[in-house]
Design brief:
- By secondary structure, the protein is α+β, with helices and mostly antiparallel strands.
- Among the domains are: 22-77, Homeodomain-like (Arc Repressor Mutant, subunit A); 113-129 and 145-198, no CATH class.
- The chain is built from 5 helices and 6 strands.
- The strands form 2 sheets. It has a 4-stranded mixed sheet with strand order 2-4-5-6, with no helix packed on it. It has a two-stranded antiparallel ribbon with strand order 1-3.
- Helix 1 crosses helix 2 and helix 2 (22-36) packs across helix 3.
- The chain starts with a helix and ends in an 8-residue tail after the last strand.
- GO terms for molecular function: DNA binding.
- Keywords: DNA-binding.
- Residues 1-20 are annotated as: Disordered.
- Pfam families: DDE_1 (PF03184), HTH_Tnp_Tc5 (PF03221).
- Residues 12-83 form the HTH CENPB-type domain.
Amino acid sequence: MLLAESNCTNLSRKRRRDGKEKNVETALSVWFAQTRTKNVPINGNILTHKATSFAKTMKMDDFIPTSGWLQRWKERNNISFKRIYGEKKDSDINAAEYWCQWTLKDLLKDYTPENIYNCDETGLIFRGLPDRTLSFKNEIPIGSKKMKDRLTVMVSCNMTGSDKHPLMVIGKRKNPRCFKGIKTLPVNYVVNKVAYQFQ
């Protein structure tokens, strides 16, 4: 409890107001402080889910963690949302605008929107943690080693959205353990031993 009180309290507030569900808020504050000591990323959805779980344990069936309640709880506990590491590299906006206005326009002039498709692949890091977290304002978030388990997913759709191709998922194993007992999939699954190299 000392950890939660020493780190969570917003000392700049003239008067600290306890929330209506004080027991839930106290439990959430202690859990948040303990979890952040392990550098686990936490966002608003995780907090509301945890608060609901505490309320259920305390048999407070009418407790609803609204966005307003969550914001006030964060203010009372001196918590803000921060990026854990890094920033995006600046894009060349002028070059992109020129290409879209002139080069792309010339390439597409002979096609109807129904016949213009976009196809791209993306990595699905299914065990990855968020790169942002709620933390105490005086805390510097520290990242941890990333989980690199991933799949490659290819998406394709025409310009009007009238023809959306099923997702193609590329994995390294022909029969993953999670496929046991599964006869059909809502996606096209293919195997490639170097699937992770698709960036």
